[in-house]
Fold:
Amino acid sequence: MIEIVNLSLSGQTEYTIPHDTAAIAFHAMGGNVQLRHLPAGSPWTLMTGQKESIDTRSLAGQKLYLTGADGTILEIRILKGLLA
Structure:
């Protein structure tokens, strides 16, 4: 099953990786998004329109810190269920 979440960003937002997931795909829309594992850690940046996916089997329950300007949307597609 795939669940889609759209986060409207305005500054820094915390996102907890759900349990029972196999992978998460990110799609930055309307602006660039910086992702971090720690609140002040080194970011990796998704440019607007760029997509990125990560294997989340070992990351369940951990937080990601997302930063984007007003109006930036981060679409998150979560692969859940049997494959997790």
